[in-house]
């Protein structure tokens, strides 16, 4: 009975609400460091060394493509659950969105391992303010609940 009461207390605890949610190892220092190095080598050319994205990232160019969005808190990366971010990074935006959607975001599945993709995304998430991380964790919890 004591174990059951302890389990209930832990589940109701505010610490539980702050626990990492989702796939990304954004609290793992080694994963973040590796992810940052990979990001700088593979992603920064388009998304910016400081995660700032390209200018006018909300406006399509003359060919119908959107510039690379920022991955900092000013962008929309944190609006999407980890699984979606992972799939977009691995397979490319066009493959995930479909229906003729045009994007310059290629898939990195042939370049990076699944673990490396997770580490890049963990690095990105680790840079967000705590408020944004908390919102993103709730998005992940909601997405996991919808999947069950």
Q: How does the overall form come out from the CA principal axes?
A: globular
Percent strand equals under 5%
Q: Please report the total strand number as a whole number.
A: 0
The count of helical stretches stands at 8
CATH class: Mainly Alpha
| Average pLDDT number | 87
CATH architecture classification: Orthogonal Bundle
Nutshell version of this structure?
The protein has 148 residues and is an all-alpha fold. Helices cover 53% and strands 0% of the residues.
What does this protein look like?
With 148 residues, this protein is mainly alpha-helical. 53% of the residues lie in helices and 0% in strands. It has one domain: Cytochrome c-like domain (Cytochrome Bc1 Complex, Chain D, domain 2). It is built from 8 helices and no strands. Helix 3 crosses helix 7 and helix 5 crosses helix 7. The protein is globular.
């Amino acid at each position: 009975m004591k174990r059951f009461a302890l389990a209930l207390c832990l589940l109701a605890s505010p610490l539980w609400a702050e626990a990492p949610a989702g796939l990304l190892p954004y609290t793992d220092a080694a994963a973040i460091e590796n992810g940052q190095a990979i990001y700088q080598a593979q992603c920064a050319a388009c998304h910016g060394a400081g995660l700032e994205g390209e200018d006018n990232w909300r406006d399509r160019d003359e060919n119908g493509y959107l510039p690379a969005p920022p991955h900092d808190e000013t962008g929309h990366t944190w609006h999407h659950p980890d699984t979606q971010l992972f799939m977009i990074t691995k397979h490319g935006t066009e493959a995930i969105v479909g229906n003729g959607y045009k994007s310059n975001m290629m898939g990195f599945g042939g370049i990076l391992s699944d673990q490396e993709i997770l580490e890049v995304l963990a690095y990105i998430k680790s840079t967000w303010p705590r408020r944004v991380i908390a919102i993103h964790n709730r998005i992940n919890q909601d997405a996991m609940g919808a999947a069950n």
